[in-house]
Amino acid sequence: MKADEHAFEDAIEAALLAGGYLKSVPSHFDPALGLDTAELFAFIGATQITKWEKLLGRYGNDPDAAQRGFAKRLAAELDARGTVEVLRQGVVDLGVTIRLAFFAPAHGLTPELQELYAANRVSVTRQLAYEPGSTKTLDIVLLVNGIPTATAELKNPLTNQDVEHAIRQYRSDRDPTNVTLARRALVHYAVDPDRVAMTTKLAGQATQFLPFNLGHDGGAGNPTNPAGHRTSYLWQRVWARDAWMDLLARFIHVERPTQGTPAARRAAERVVFPRFHQWDAVVALETHARDHRAGHSYLVEHSAGSGKSNTIAWTAHRLSSLHDDSDQKVFDKVVVITDRVVLDRQLQETIYQFEHTRAWW
Predict the structure, then answer these.
(1) How far apart are CA 249 and CA 269, in angstroms?
(2) Which site among 46, 82, 216, 314 is 20 to 30 Å from 53 CA-CA?
(3) Domain residues of the chain, as ranges?
(4) 347 vs 145, 189, 301, 342, CA distance in Å?
(5) Which of 114, 103, 105, 98 is nearest to 252 (CA)?
(6) Are 201 and 207 in contact (CB under 8 A)?
(7) Segment-wise mean pLDDT, segments of 10 residues, the chain, 361 residues
């Protein structure tokens, strides 16, 4: 890899590590399973040792057999149910439920939940060999407790490449059926120092990327950043440890068809990941309401077909559980009024995924 791209990658990794990420070792990743088993079992050992000892007994107290058996079980559950559901609800193996992530509680009244949340192993790895028997690598992968959640291909104009080259690389040189790319990572980013694009589903040449930029002077792109790269908001804000865990817990959802065979339904799944301005608007509304409490009016403008139902659902759900800095609930009830039956159904389906999540303790 050329020095200029390496420096860009270095800068992103350094920012993530400074913000609380751990550094995963690429050689610990099992490309057949699509898992970093070292990170996985470090997390389980730190958070659920009693349950693991129970599961170990059911594997005949053979640690190697238990780790192999659970890793295979987890991979199968990820293939069948997807990363979002597994992270939120865990996996049952031989009658023992193992959590795969602990998300931040809505308030600070339960310190034990805060401790479990802090124990998540949110990590970054570079040049990850993701295909069995291949030397192909992904520039950056974000993992949560050993499970890949996002990939990124980086380009630098100083090497005569930019975000469009990264997009072409995903379309032409990334197998859309690969387990890590298709059944683990939820979003894929094409990144250069000036622009970002993202997709939630790789489909070869048919892959559709959407811009993931701040906008500039009423148009596309990003404004000049005196402190660094124009795209630094991606790793400083969106990929920040707490923000990323929050995206996994309370933003991303999966649209699943109800008809067809299980394989056909899985193939037709669509991961919904917020556009930057959706995420930014919802977080801004929540922050203002937390700081200033109830009694204020807000206006969020959406163009046609730009995801207004999701923005409404995300905002309503977050405000319904919002607590201020004194751990007092801000709103007693959230009422959503809409004049569209289709929008009403979309809201219900979106909120359902957040509400029907097992308790985190």
Answers:
(1) 18
(2) 82
(3) 3-242, 274-355
(4) 30, 27, 17, 9
(5) 103
(6) yes
(7) 73 98 97 98 98 98 98 97 96 98 89 96 98 96 98 93 97 97 97 98 97 92 96 98 96 85 79 94 94 92 78 88 90 83 64 54 37
